[in-house]
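Archive record:
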Amino acid sequence: MAKAGPAAERVVRAGAELADEIGFEQVTPSALARHLGVRTASLYSHVKNAHDLKTKIALLALEELADRASAALAGRAGKDALSAFADAYRDYAFQHPGRFAAAQFRLDADAAAASAGVRHSQMMRAILRGYDLTETQQTHAVRLLGSVFSGYVGLEAAGGFSHSAPASQESWTEILGALDALLRNWPSPA
């Protein structure tokens, strides 16, 4: 059985650092053992298997990202809050590409319900309450914003915007402005 505690936390942090170096999909217990200079078998006292290791890295990434987003949102509302939230995600993705990929790892229902993913949803809904959207519209908006943020960051990280003007930052600012305008004028349900 995998143990929880400081040593297990160090193993997960080392796995997250390795994910940033080599990519989240490449992280395995054997790759992590090589990175740490230990035998693979010694890791199994802290993680059950590769899926458990990836789940724990995902949970760490969600927690870190929620903490950053929360700090960025403090005292902000409306477009300012939307931009701060989006920028926190984008900055995290560039500083920690493997962890950002881990934050999108599919968790089982129990792990997802107990994760910081719940905080992400709560923060996004708090931002959206300032736009006077219904509960259903908020759900649609959360999905839209998540898709735009992840999609833009993924394309940008892959170099998709590096070969043309204007600069990616200018497009990002314009897109956030367009999202703010859409949220302010969300179409009424038919």
In short: Residues 86 and 146 are 9 Å apart (CA to CA). The chain has ten helices and no strands. The mean pLDDT is 93.
